[in-house]
Amino acid sequence: MANSSSAYRRILLRIGIAGVVVFAGLQFVRPELKNPEVTNELQAPPEVKDILRSACYDCHSNETKLAWFDQVVPAYWLVVRDVKTARQHLNFSELGAQPAAKQRAMLYEAINQVQLGAMPLAAYRRMHPEAHVSESELAVLRHYLETSTPQPEVSAAEVSAAEKQFSDWVAAGPASAKPPAAPNGIEFPADYRNWTPISSTDRFDNQSLRVILGNDTALKAIAENHINPWPDGSILAKVAWTQQKDGQGMVRTGAFQHVEFMIRDSRKYASTKGWGWARWRGTGLKPYGDRPSFSDECVGCHEPVQGNDYVYTAPIRGQR
Ligand code: HEC
Ligand code: HEC
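^ thats the input. predicted complex w/ heme C below
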């Protein structure tokens, strides 16, 4: 018996050595990660950039600094992939080339992602606790956007027209005339006005007011806490209005912007992450997109919350 157990140990040892050799060999299989020159950095005050630099620049800039443990294959492969994808979505080293309004809009999306708990990526946060954005840092970011975004003053007549539009919407119930289907064939779910709000948010730069509604299946799923994944038949709607400021500085609901939907059917919509995506714009409810693949844009932007079944809104739960 002694013989066979030492043979067994020898085999294990050989496998172990082979593993180390392969691991060491793989270290040479390294896709290149360059830091191109920073030509047009985001224009923002230093206190704003400092926060972004420590939390986001490793992936969203041309100033990526890798920790030693990020340089070890296979972790390195994942890091390189993340950095390349992240730069395509948002690159703070190049954003400065855009007009000021576009920079602010991108910064709004960026801060929103932090606020929703989607960024920095959770896996990165675990390895880099210093990248966590604290409440007080978030406040600095929000304050900068709130104070740097010009707020158009509007007349009393415009405000009352907008209020009428809003109260008409609330009172109206299902629209009678059905708008055309979305380019991917999804029909307008006209009864969405009767659904229940599960969350509502102001854009913190006061540009729009948004309400998220859920149908009965979605509400039941929330009540039973079965929302990752959401059950087939769940539909979530997001309705957005612009906001405007009246003469007294009060923020009011302005024009209806759009209503958009995520419709759960894991088989029918398997190619778009199990959700059917559709959006109708303006009071005329014009379908958004000019070909079925328009929903790639929706999926792409909801990708950071794939761990949450592609849904940003956390209905009854607290902070993620
Ligand atoms: C570890 C790398 C990493 C870090 C750090 C990181 N991100 Fe990201 N970010 C990504 C990746 C990858 C994507 C692309 C979406 C995806 O595939 O999940 C992304 C997407 C985004 C998007 C675009 C969403 C869209 O599709 O329009 C925004 C905005 C964003 N990140 C903001 C931030 C902010 C702000 C920070 C810092 C607080 C940050 N990210 C930190 C990797 C990172
Ligand atoms: C620029 C990024 C972006 C794009 C593009 C985008 N979304 Fe979203 N979506 C968000 C964010 C962020 C939220 C969270 C609520 C908020 O902040 O407005 C959201 C919320 C939603 C919600 C409410 C459920 C949830 O996830 O919280 C629906 C429904 C929705 N989006 C549908 C769509 C559809 C349909 C499209 C494509 C026509 C689309 N979205 C494109 C970023 C995006």
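The chain has two domains: 46-148, 156-308.
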